[in-house]
Design a protein that fits this description.
- The complex is a heterodimer of chains A (169) and B (336).
- By secondary structure, chain A is an alpha+beta fold.
- Chain A is 41% helix and 17% strand.
- Chain A contains six helices and five strands.
- Chain A has a five-stranded mixed beta sheet, with helices on one face.
- In chain A, helix 4 links the parallel strand 3 and strand 4.
- In chain A, helix 1 runs antiparallel to helix 2 and helix 1 packs antiparallel against helix 4.
- Chain A is globular.
- Chain B has 336 residues and is α/β, with parallel strands linked by helices.
- Chain B contains ten helices and twelve strands.
- Chain B has a four-stranded mixed beta sheet, with helices on both faces.
- In chain B, a hairpin with a 2-residue loop joins strand 9 and strand 10.
- In chain B, helix 3 runs parallel beside helix 5, helix 7 crosses helix 9 and helix 8 crosses helix 9.
- The radius of gyration of chain B is 20 Å and the shape is globular.
- The chains are: A alpha+beta (169), B alpha/beta (336).
- The interface between A and B is medium-sized, with 16 and 26 residues.
- The complex binds iron/sulfur cluster.
- The site of iron/sulfur cluster has 11 residues of chain A, from helix 2 and helix 6.
- Iron/sulfur cluster binds next to helix 2 and helix 6 of chain A.
Chain lengths: 169, 336
């Protein structure tokens, strides 16, 4: 089985159907303008930061901006609409860092467009919750024939899978 | 928006920085006009004339996800250069293969494909029937074949019905195209024997290539098909898909071209063994076909306007959902 990544965690909190499809490599992101905009954001938001931060790969996930001196993960987001899933994703980074022996890492979610930042810590609750969540994900993904249903939320309209999910005839 | 480019004339294609450079050759083989195409504007290339190119160019095209489709003198599709298959999905491939190797599963899909194709063919005939053409007998006959589809137990049988449906449909062409200079006795290919057949062959080939391009941007494997036998052409899934879209994309384009006299007998050459579209005719056809692909309709499920070209992609999505046991495939049936 492929390792679960931070993207899995994010999707788990966003939409389990999206998670299921993504895990099967049925991905739509290559056609999505929102994703292209996100990539552009990464390239243009803080061009001067390349020196202070490192990109690291850890447990199958990639952290784009990590400050090893201060042990801070920086994560850039376009908007704070998906706040809960953004937070879950970043907490998973922290959990991975701890699992790899980094003590007391913290994170900052940054919304450059909104000129906002948000500090994120890993709590005792998170440490108890995350392993169970990963196990639940593995069970869900192992099921070959039961894709989780369409969630029918306003968010679907912006989702790269919208047409895939809603086209029927 | 990325575009499909058609290269009709012989010439050389090369890379210049991040741009494609196309130099046409004149009749004597000397270099003529040069054109530049920014690579990010190119979806794919269709090559009809002799093309000179080197591997550096193909590396460049491959890196940018641009495929090149080749056609011979008779406008038959001969092959493709496909950029590395960047979207293949392991588990979907396994599922797709499973739906081919299991006869009951394959029958379901093959039937649906023919059902969808027949519906769209009938749609064309009904349109003309409402305008007073006498095609009632053929419609009734085709409906009988459609009704028999659920009883077919082999792929050969389904293919047989498909053939019958088409033959009956083509019998109406004489009725539908009432333009002097165009006759149609029966469907002939390789090479087409008259003007109408030449148009059908050319159009069907364009439709096949359009389906191939769309499939390529999904995770389906274009070589595994359900109605047609894989291997009947390299990318036989495109043949399956084309069945559904030919009535709307190709046949209606032909009716328009002829009824509006945009293509005339002088746009063809008759040779000893067949009939071919001349370059003038091909250019007109491609232009109208492209317009057709870009034409939009309001999608009744998605609440969005989508182009005909995009409908092909949506068809790929539905097929994907069927293969992953998410939702049973319902073929596209023109609803407007
Ligand atoms: S469109 Fe809606 S249901 Fe489908 S994956 Fe996206 S969020 Fe989930």
């Amino acid at each position: 089985m492929k390792p679960l990544t931070a993207t899995h965690v994010k999707y788990f909190h966003l939409c389990q159907r999206k998670l299921w499809l993504f895990d099967r490599d049925v991905w739509m992101e290559h056609t999505s303008e929102a994703v292209a905009a996100g990539e552009l954001l990464h390239q243009t938001a803080y061009p001067q930061r390349a020196e202070r931060y490192r990109e690291i790969s850890i447990g199958g996930s990639r952290i784009d901006f990590y400050d090893p001196q201060r042990k801070v993960v920086h994560e850039l987001k376009k908007s704070n609409k998906m706040e809960a899933s953004n937070v879950a994703q970043v907490k998973y980074y922290l959990w991975l860092l701890e699992a790899h022996g980094v003590e007391g890492p913290t994170a900052i979610l940054e919304y450059p467009k909104l000129r906002q930042t948000q500090a994120v810590d890993l709590t005792a609750e998170d440490r108890a919750r995350i392993p169970g969540e990963l196990a639940a994900m593995r069970t869900l993904l192992a099921d070959e024939t039961t894709c989780p249903p369409v969630i029918n939320k306003p968010f679907c309209k912006q989702c790269a899978y919208y047409e895939f999910c809603y086209v029927a005839e | 928006m990325k575009k499909t480019y058609y290269l009709f004339n012989p010439g050389r294609l090369s890379r210049q920085d991040n741009t494609l450079k196309y130099t046409a050759y004149d009749e004597a083989g000397a270099e003529g006009q040069t054109r530049f195409l920014p690579i990010e504007d190119v979806a794919d290339l269709y090559v009809f004339g002799a093309l000179d190119a080197n591997s550096a160019l193909y590396n460049f095209l491959g890196k940018n996800g641009v495929s090149v489709h080749f056609f011979d003198y008779y406008e038959h599709y001969t092959g493709s250069f496909m950029a590395k298959e960047y979207l293949l999905a392991g588990r979907l491939q396994v599922a797709q293969t499973g739906h081919y190797t299991s006869l009951p599963k394959r029958l379901v899909l093959a039937r649906k494909l023919v059902e969808g194709a027949a519906f769209n063919l009938l749609k064309n005939l009904r349109y003309y029937q409402s305008r007073g053409r006498e095609v009632g007998a053929e419609i009734a006959q085709m409906e009988l074949y459609v009704a028999a589809l659920p009883h077919a137990t082999t792929i050969a049988e389904i293919m047989g019905y498909e053939g019958n449906i088409r033959q009956t449909y083509y019998r109406c062409f004489e009725q539908l195209v009432r333009v002097p200079g165009f006759t149609f006795d029966k469907r002939s290919t390789q090479p087409p024997q008259n003007e109408l057949n030449a148009l059908l062959s050319f159009g069907n080939m364009l439709c096949y290539a359009a389906c191939l391009s769309q499939i390529y941007h999904t995770q389906l494997n274009p070589t595994i098909s359900f109605l047609h036998e894989p291997g009947s052409r390299r990318f036989s899934l495109a043949l399956d898909m084309a069945e559904i879209f030919k009535p709307l994309l190709v046949d209606r384009t032909i009716f328009r071209l002829l009824n509006k006299k945009e293509i005339q007998p002088r746009d063809f050459v008759r040779e000893l063994d067949g009939c071919l579209l001349k370059e003038t005719g091909r250019k007109t056809f491609v232009r109208v076909f492209e317009e057709r692909l870009k034409e939009t309709i309001q999608h009744r499920r998605l609440n969005r306007t989508v182009s005909y070209q995009h409908l092909i992609k949506l068809e790929c999505y539905k097929l994907t959902k069927h293969l992953l046991a998410m939702e049973e495939y319902q073929p596209f049936k023109a609803w407007w």
